[in-house]
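Curious: explain these tokens?
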Amino acid sequence: DDDDDIPQLSSHTLAALQEFYLEQQQREGMKTSQGFNHYSIGSIEEDWQLSQFWYSDETASCLAKEAVVAAGKGGRIACVSAPSVYQKLKEWDGEDFSVCILEYDRRFAVYGEEFIFYDYNHPLSLPENLLPHSFDIVIADPPYLSEECLQKTAETVKYLTKGKILLCTGAIMEEQAAKHLGVKICKFIPKHSRNLANEFRCYVNYASGLD
């Protein structure tokens, strides 16, 4: 029988697949239902191939509040590879600040003019209208735990910021973070919506509310 050569899925695998598709349909249904906020964390799915791991809602809120306070009234905030914080800030639209997102994932282009395509391998390949030292605070979350990635992202951060830097990266990057950005570790421990194997921390170069 020719069918003998066709690989068959186990009943367990089949059930898991069906559950996955059902969850996907439910998420899509929520997105199209009335009142869906397309700025909500998770409205754009994580892509692990791009090393994307979204913050928990509580962490995103904490970092967003810190950014607003640090930026000051009418302040400008840049989120470099930190879409969860950008999305949380946009949920508070109407507050007295402006924000933009620098991100490699072009799905975030749905956010219009505030989206700026960003590849850390080309740290200063930025639009001409993105003037140097034009942001009151820059929040950065380099996608990879490597000194090369941190060093290149640091070039972007130093170009954009007027001075204040909030960096989110692994605890193992503490020495490199101090070396490339002059930031110190905070007491606040950020959490992700899915647990990561690596311990994650926040770093700042100013007196913040994260200690």
